[in-house]
Amino acid sequence: LFLFGEILWEKMLFMKCHFKSTIKMKVYKKSKYKTQLIAKMVVLMAILGGSSFGVFYIFNSYEGIADFSIDARPDKSSFKTANLTTLEEIAIGLDERYPKYHLPLNQSTSCTFNNDSMENGGIVSYTNVSSYHFSDNEALWTGIDYVGWTYKYLSAQKENDTVMERYAHDVLINMTSGLTMLMIVPNGGLGPNFGGILGRGYAPPDAKETWPYIFRDGIEKHFTGTGNYTDWRWRGYTSNDEFSGYYLFLAMATKYLMNISFIAERVSLIVDQLCFNFLNTNFLGLHGSGATTGVDQKPYMFSGAFIQCLLLKLGAIHFPEKYAQKYYHQLANDMAYLSTHEGGVHEVFANYYAYNFALCTCLGYLILEDDPEIWNIFFDGYYNSIWQYTKNHRDAWSNSIILMIANECAHLNLNARVSENMSIVVADVKDQLQRFAETHYPDRGYLMGQSLPEGYVEVQPVAEFVDAMNFGEDTQNLLGIDKDDKFLNKPLTIDLRDVDGWAWNNNPFVFRPRATERLLHENTGSTFTVPYWMLRYSGHITRESAVL
Amino acid sequence: MSEDNSRSVDAVAFQIYYFIAVLILGFFAIYTYNTYGLRTSVQFPEGAWMVLGGFSLFFPTSLLLLPFTFWLLLCTISSLKRIKFTQKEKKIEIEEHSLLIFRKNVSISQDEIQSVSIDSGSIGTKWLWVCFYGTHMFLTITDGVHLLTDPYVFGLGFANGWILVISGILDFIVLLLLLIPNECLVKISTKTDVIMLKFSAIRNKNKKIKEIAALFGISARLSPEKIQDETQENLENNVKGKPILPTSLILGVLLILIGLISQMLRIYAGTALLLIFYFFGIMLILKGIKVDPVIRPMNQDKFRSKEMLIVKTNSLLTEKYYSIRLKSIDEEISDFGAYPLDSFTGSLLILLPFLIGLTLSAWFRFIPTDVNLIGYSVLYVVLSAIILVGIVLYILQPTHKLRIQSNTEQISVNLNAFHAPSNKPVEEDNKHSKVTIIKIGVLAISCLIGIITTWILA
Lengths: 548, 458
Known about the structure:
The structure holds 2 protein chains of 2 kinds.
Chain A: H1 2-13, E1 26-29, H2 30-64, H3 67-71, H4 84-101, E2 110-113, E3 129-133, H5 138-158, H6 162-187, E4 201-203, E5 222-224, E6 233-235, H7 240-256, H8 261-280, E7 284-286, E8 292-296, H9 306-318, H10 320-333, H11 353-368, H12 372-390, H13 396-408, H14 422-439, E9 444-445, E10 458-459, H15 461-469, H16 473-479, E11 487-488, E12 518-522, H17 526-537
Antiparallel strand pairs in A: 2-3, 2-12, 4-6, 5-6, 7-8, 9-12, 10-11
Helix pairs in contact in A: 4-17, 5-6, 5-7, 5-17, 6-8, 7-9, 7-11, 8-9, 9-10, 9-11, 11-12, 11-13, 13-14, 13-17, 14-17
Chain B: E1 7-13, H1 16-36, E2 48-49, E3 55-56, H2 58-61, H3 66-78, E4 81-88, E5 91-98, E6 102-109, E7 113-119, H4 127-149, H5 156-179, E8 184-190, E9 193-199, H6 205-215, H7 218-222, H8 224-227, H9 247-265, H10 271-290, E10 302-304, E11 308-314, E12 319-325, E13 334-336, H11 343-366, H12 374-396, E14 401-405, E15 410-414, H13 426-457
Antiparallel strand pairs in B: 1-4, 2-3, 4-5, 5-6, 7-8, 7-12, 8-9, 10-11, 11-12, 13-14, 14-15
């Protein structure tokens, strides 16, 4: 602006000349000065315009790699009719096993069982755990699972099933306890008088057999606890994936579970701790050495405001006197309301997992914010960005989220703001649940089809882009792409995919089947249970069994 | 234009302060490169930037600045020159040896010279350095200070905070080196040509400028003894040494103070408005010390005969000489009180009110009625009003500007240092009123567009 202002006002109109002559003596013919000036302006505009066009062209081409995913609309005629009785039995079955085998140390994890068939009449009992497979994202997975259990708890309340309510309540208490320790162990305590580092996972000193890896020396991500927890261990370098899942847990608890004092006390302390510390660090994440991890929760480039606004909204709900002004400052004065887009279509071929955690922040924020003015802006941001990118992905998680938002925010007139036929979205989720029920229950490491399913074709859109741009390997690495990556012309349904942990985190356009089966390996079942309980609570799936 | 005998002014010029700035940035870049490396990875035990798996701290502290530093280096190298002004037989010969090698020579007959201006502290496009290094300074110091003042930051967090703050402080030092030291701009206008020469003499900078002024016969005519020998007209009854209200400085400091308080307390100004506060704050302060006259000068700072007008103005750090031949000017000299709408005041009138309108409207649009934020709302309105009134007062301050219009160019001399003539023609007052209305209109419309934009954008 200044450059152009300087040139336009002071040169074109008044013919002052002090801009020139920085480098050497200039001699201008007055008669030609205007012509020269216009010529220079044209050259400058051409350079700026050309550069802008070049950047826009590259960016547009980069995003265009994933155009195939936008066009891959699901074939409604292929949707399976869900057997709701079967789905309910599977949900109950998976939930029975979850707290017993998939919540060690109160963190969500898959496990491998011992082959005890010799002692068990030729049948593996699936009760004798050999090892747990703690991941790098305990806050994220436990946070997502928390969603399923919360809606199970709420469904039980709605259906007056006190047994199921009590069961879900107890699991939620355990999960809250584990999620709380993810804050306590790295910082030495809970509340605003302690630091704000979130662990990727934690283990008490007596858990060396449960999670031996976290006690191994020489691992850069592993740290000892702080204060009273110096003999505990935790994993650091915590990413925004983790924070997103964690904030979703806090949002679910804040929205639905404040009647449970155990949860309410802890959640409010955690919210205070996180808000206080992130405001202090200007939303930069820290890790075990005290240094910055690179995590930055400020929105930038008109994108990514959900995570920051979700945290401060939590603060404004729990401690309005401390954080309400901060929330509205970030939202209004710092213009977070202009950065409500989440993700990009390019994540189909680069960092697909980013959709999953971005969806966590969208769900968390949109169920908490009830001001129609703000909600509409953020919903439009969500709807016009990440929903458009993922709606054709046969992703039961993404679909369940828009259904849940529609259910919880019906008073905000969502239906008037969307063009989707929600019944098709419901049918899509049910189709995925039915396919899961037929092929993946119990949730173990089955060997899926090894050849490309009928109707699927592999394409190499990245290669075309890389060749056109003549990008080298380093540039590809920087952009998170690989020339040799192959993608399917349409997303795989869940029956055609390996499930290893939370399936909705993995790219459905990539066909890379596991070569060997792992029948002793059991996942948490959340791939099924979380969407199931979300639909059950929102009334799209009905209870089939009688209340005992 | 000169009655002096043959003589010359010779100087070797080099932007020594630019060179120091390049050295500072260069050594800091080497240090941060050695410490943090040119790495992108998932785990940086010593600290990372932007995203997990993003960039080492070398990127934000140094690498981002390297293109600008490289440009600065080019400017530094190209500033090395030898210049020579020679007055010989009614001719002025200007010789320039760029990089001490490439010779360029211009010879002008003194009779052809229409005007000469010598500005000892030309700012030119130095505003751009404020945009580049100022933005970087803002971002690094903001994050760095947050880390250093966080009660629960520990270990390498302090090292990260310090390196960011040091990077920002170095930006500030570099800005001082780029903006404060004076650089002389000589502009000579003939009927057909405009000749411009910018240089920064290594030694005796002020003396060289005075010598050049003398060469063009400017300082000789401004000496008290000479005044008595000439026919003088319209010499005003100046009050000797009376200070002028430093409005640019006041508004600049006000903007920076409001910005700092906003940022420290996380109230009122968001990032965009903060940046604009700081940019305009720095620029206004710079204008206050290098452009605006601060002390009303004595009579001998203005000389006017039937043929010639010679003016000298002083700011805190600079001197400006103007010598204008009147016979060849087609239009009369005109004095009037409206400060023209130049690029700086234009930007000030558009950007600040726009962002203030945007900020206020967003705040009142989004805050709920059931949360007690009335105190903040009142504060924001008051702060906005103070700033807008400050801008209005600033742009509407009576300004004595001398504009000389010929067929081919317009020479504009800020004569704020002198009293405005008491016998201003009525039509000039009308013109002043029109410009005033336009300025207030631009400000109001900018503010209104800011308010509306909140609804247009979201």
